[in-house]
Amino acid sequence: MSAPRVLVTGAAGAFGTAVSAALRERGAEVAGIDLAGEATQGAHIVACDITDPEAAAAQAQEIAVRHSVTSAEGAVVAVRAGTVCVHGDNPSAVAIAQSVRAALDGAGVVVRSPAADGD
Fold first, then answer.
1. Count of structural domains, the chain
2. Is residue 104 part of a domain?
3. Least C-beta-crowded within 10 Å: which of 23, 45, 80, 103?
4. Which of 101, 109, 107, 34 has its CA nearest to residue 73?
5. What's the pTM?
6. Residue 19 to residues 9, 16, 31, 43, 90: CA-CA distances in angstroms?
7. Is residue 117 in a domain?
8. What sign does the CA torsion over 12, 62, 97, 48 have?
């Protein structure tokens, strides 16, 4: 079995750095998304403002279509994601969700409820 791959948002901050370190200690390959876009303690960091609808949509589309993210230092990190979580704790949450959905639809990605897997 290969090591799990985890994408951590806010990875360059104190909490994100601690979570990333704990995941790496457990054998995970960690990539992160952060405004800073600077590699931190062995994690590849993708420079992205996930509160920007277009930036969030571009990242979601890259993950869904290419199954990867490209870090600020140019490393391509494989990411297989079965879900997309849009945080609702900022004023642009609805615009982000709409932009992500439009980008995924435009790329031909089938979007469905996770509950559909349980039927």
1. 1
2. yes
3. 80
4. 34
5. 0.72
6. 10, 5, 11, 11, 22
7. no
8. positive
